[in-house]
Design brief:
The complex is a heterodimer. Chain A is mostly helical. Chain A has one domain: Orthogonal Bundle (MetI-like fold), CATH 1.10.3720. Chain A is 65% helix and 0% strand. Chain A has 13 helices and no strands. In chain A, helix 4 (73-104) runs antiparallel to helix 12 (230-238). The longest helix of chain A is centred in the N-terminal third of the chain and has 32 residues, at 11-42. In chain A, 29% of the residues are buried. By secondary structure, chain B is an alpha/beta fold. Chain B has two domains: 28-152 and 335-412, D-Maltodextrin-Binding Protein, domain 2; 159-331 and 425-455, Periplasmic binding protein-like II (D-Maltodextrin-Binding Protein, domain 2). In chain B, the strands form six sheets. A six-stranded mixed sheet of chain B has the order 2-1-3-13-4-16. In chain B, a hairpin with a 2-residue loop joins strand 6 and strand 7. The chains are: A mainly alpha, B alpha/beta.
Chain lengths: 295, 512
């Protein structure tokens, strides 16, 4: 039988924990309120939206906005484009990042200082929009699916996170493997990578969320609506006249407004990330701290 | 068996080829035109699509446009800049917000001066000569050339309207003096004209940044366009209306209305949707907007009250405060319009196609293009074309939305209203048409008509009226006394107002 030991908490400790708990609950509520409000708007009627009477509960409950969104076939094809481009970005970027971060983490690797400097250079100096556009266009990425993949596959910040992680990898293990006759690639793929799940999950999540939410590059590069990723498609669906331009003669019988559609779209685009998050969260909490303390 | 199949296939291919060639010969051989226009969420009009085919059949030129997000004009301008930078400028495109000057100076625009009379006679004649003079005076290269085809409005576009059913409910007649006007507002506030037993009436109001209540300022002869103070003649010289004694008197009046609770307490917080929403909730007495779209508001009230209230409205007469001459600001020459890419000059047929598209837009013969594609944008009921409800998920963008109607006037607007008339909304359309016709005499073309926004270059704060909004908001709400107005005028002149004034006066001298 194992005895249960507990660290004694003083009254002060407990009060402190309580305060922290209350603060965190409040913070969680604060984060949840806008989402609940958006959900309420997405389920409200046109009149309720126009008269601004919606609080945290739907007014004039209707699925009209959701129906409009979900019945739209092009929304689903955009959804698939976003899913596939995100998956490609994650796979390709993890491969490239880890293969570059690993040698850069080794002091023995001569050019690592110069390469690192070049990497950091891109963090400080960013290309202005027009040259960036012309470059990507020059590579044939205009109106091309890969415009949503290639520009996203490497980010200096994520590379540095990975590099810091590999620096903490015990050298003894690598030496032992080397003595047993293990080659460089085999060591990387069969020893180093399998022990780096935390950093892979974290960096993968960074890339995944970034690719999922990407807006500026597709906006610039993609004009063919058949290639629109979800975020652009949603914007297209929601997009409509602001009050002043409503001067143009229009008739509409729909029971939704731009506002309710927008709300439904926001919730819709959040769902995949919300579903994915709990599965990577355990790595994420660990991984986000990686590299913050150098061994 | 195999052979017959192959033979059949070859025959079929041949037949297709021949019929294709025959068609190509009969149709005009104009190349397609990429035409960038405002798209706020409609499907793109792509090559081979329904709208493209319609333009090809109707005017002989296929017109298309990829999906370019409008986003208040901002994303559109960014995307246009990228295409221009890549030497891939759309053949025809609309401009706004002052981008035309840099495009002209960068050589991206085609000089239309010599082509207009010959290739675009309908455009040339539809736009008044005075507007062409303004366009020439505004040429950033200083050569007096025409690079742009501006949007033109030759009627009084704005105005205030008042709930006449409310007037009846409180036993008042239509106000014609300022005193009577204030008296009516008081009655609206106190006598429960919407009859719901609650004191929820908002006699009058406007929107944030003191916008969309121009009619209150106009009672003192303040030139103002949708809340933006304008330049007009004061004391014999063109002057920014916000720094005149007229403005001071107007502010004192508006602030007194606010203090008495006759303006919406949230006037300076209302977004477009908030303010129209309040009107739609059957709580607002006087509303300043584009009167002919009133039918949308009337429908709003009808929906909100579940069909119980068919609101009655009429133009609020132009009221002049004592000692002042009131008017509604009219600016015929728009700050937006169309341009043609300089690149089309490299291909004669392409250039002719572009000119043809523009000319047809101003040719009344093709005005039915405005209805769009049958089955997609309109249907025929009893031999009459009726627009279908707007549906962005299934309708392609109408690029040539208003053929022959690029110059907006009362007749054009009336025909647009007639196009959306149905049995149910007929009463609303009647009221809208009455409002449209009711205040035409109150408009006045201001001196700054056609003034290029380049006069503000380097003084964006003046253009964005930052200082103005700050002071005016505080004076209206009573946080500042009216005496602070003089401080505002002084600071405005010091912080770039003087420099801009000099430029405007120089421009005006050249225009005359």
């Amino acid at each position: 039988m194992k005895a249960k030991y507990r660290i004694r908490e003083s009254a002060g400790d407990r009060t402190f924990s309580m305060i922290v708990l209350v603060f965190l609950v409040l913070f969680a509520v604060l984060m949840a309120v806008p989402m609940i409000a958006e959900l309420a708007v997405s389920l409200s009627s046109k009149i309720a939206s126009q008269t601004g009477s919606i609080g945290l509960l739907p007014e004039g409950f209707t699925f009209a906005s959701w129906e409009f969104m979900l019945r739209n076939a092009s929304l689903w094809s955009s959804f698939m484009i976003s899913v596939s481009s995100t998956a490609l970005v994650v796979v390709i970027s993890l491969l490239i990042n880890s293969m570059m971060a690993y040698p850069l983490s080794k002091k023995r690797f001569g050019p690592s200082r110069v390469l690192l400097l070049l990497v950091v250079f891109t963090m400080i100096f960013k290309a202005p929009t027009i040259p960036y556009f012309l470059t990507l266009r020059g590579y044939g990425l205009y109106n091309n699916f890969w415009a949503m993949v290639f520009p996203q596959v490497i980010s200096a910040y994520n590379l540095l996170v990975m590099r810091s992680f590999f620096q903490t990898f015990p050298q003894e293990i690598e030496e032992a493997a080397e003595i047993d006759g293990c080659g460089k690639f085999r060591m990387f793929f069969q020893i180093v990578l399998p022990s780096s799940k935390a950093v892979i999950a974290t960096v993968g999540l960074f890339y995944g969320v970034g690719a999922w939410n990407q807006y500026a590059t597709p906006l610039m590069m993609i004009q063919d609506t058949a290639l629109f990723p979800l975020q652009l498609k949603i914007h297209q669906l929601v997009n409509a006249a602001s009050g002043d331009i409503a001067a143009a003669v229009k008739v509409s019988t729909a029971n939704y407004t731009n506002e309710t559609l927008g709300a439904a779209a926001v919730i819709f685009s959040m769902i995949p990330v919300l579903i994915l998050y709990p599965f990577v969260q355990k790595y994420f909490a660990k991984g986000a701290m990686l590299g913050s303390v150098k061994g | 068996m195999k052979l017959t199949k192959r033979m059949l296939g070859t025959l079929l291919a041949l037949a297709l080829l021949i019929s294709g060639a025959a068609f190509a010969e009969t149709a005009e051989n104009y190349p397609d035109i990429e035409y960038w226009f405002t798209n706020e969420g409609f499907l793109p009009a792509e090559v081979g699509g329904a709208y493209y085919n319609l333009t090809k059949e109707t005017i002989g030129v296929g017109v298309y446009m990829p999906y370019v997000d409008w986003n208040g004009g901002q994303t559109y301008r960014e995307q246009l800049a990228l295409r221009v930078a890549a030497n891939d400028t759309p053949d025809i495109f609309i401009y706004n917000n002052g981008i035309e000057n840099s495009l002209i100076l960068d050589g991206a625009a085609l000089d239309l001066t010599d082509y207009l009379p010959e290739y675009m006679p309908h455009v040339w004649e539809a736009i008044p000569a005075s507007v062409w003079e303004t366009v020439k005076a505004n040429d950033p290269t200083g050569q007096g050339r025409i690079w742009t085809i501006p949007d033109v409005t030759t009627f009084t576009r704005h105005g205030a309207y008042i709930r006449t059913d409310w007037l009846e409910a409180v036993g008042k007649s239509m106000p014609t003096t300022q005193e009577e006007f204030v008296d009516v507002l008081r009655a609206f506030k106190e006598k429960d004209p919407n009859g719901n037993g609650a004191a929820d009436e908002i006699p009058a109001g406007g929107r944030m940044e003191a916008r969309w209540m121009d009619y209150l300022f106009a009672q003192y002869g303040v030139a103002m366009y949708e809340g933006y103070p304008e330049w007009d003649i004061y004391d014999g010289e063109i002057t920014y209306s916000a720094v005149t004694s007229n403005m001071k008197a107007a502010l004192e009046f508006v602030s007194s209305l606010y203090k008495e609770g006759l303006l919406d307490p949230e006037t300076l917080l209302n977004s477009a949707g908030d303010w129209s929403g309040k009107f739609d909730s059957n709580t607002v007495g006087v509303y300043y907007h584009i009167p002919w779209v009133a039918y949308q508001r009337l429908q709003g009230i009808y929906d909100y009250t579940a069909g119980a209230v068919k609101a009655q409205v009429a133009n609020l007469p132009q009221i002049s405060a004592e000692g002042y001459e009131g008017f509604i600001t009219v600016k015929p020459t728009g700050n937006s319009g169309k341009m043609v890419s300089a690149d089309v000059a490299n291909d004669e047929m392409l250039m002719k196609a572009a000119f043809r598209v523009l000319d047809c837009q101003y040719n009344m013969e093709y005005r039915d293009l405005e209805y769009g594609v049958e089955g997609m944008h309109f249907e025929v009921v009893d031999g009459k074309k009726v627009k279908l409800p707007e549906d962005k998920a299934s309708q392609e963008l109408l690029i040539l939305q208003t053929p022959g109607c690029q110059v907006e006037n009362v007749e054009v607007i009336t025909s647009r209203l007639e196009a959306v008339r149905t049995e149910e909304n007929s009463w609303q359309i009647d009221e809208s048409i009455a409002l449209l016709n009711g205040n035409q005499a109150d408009g006045k073309v201001i001196a700054a008509d056609g003034m290029p926004s380049s006069v503000y270059e380097g003084y964006e704060d003046i253009q964005n009226r930052t200082l103005y909004v700050e002071y005016v908001s505080k004076i209206i709400t009573g946080e500042y006394s009216i005496d602070k107005f003089d401080e505002f005028v002084e600071r405005w002149y010091k912080n770039g107002g003087q420099a801009v004034t000099d430029r405007v006066r120089e421009w005006y001298a050249g225009k005359k």
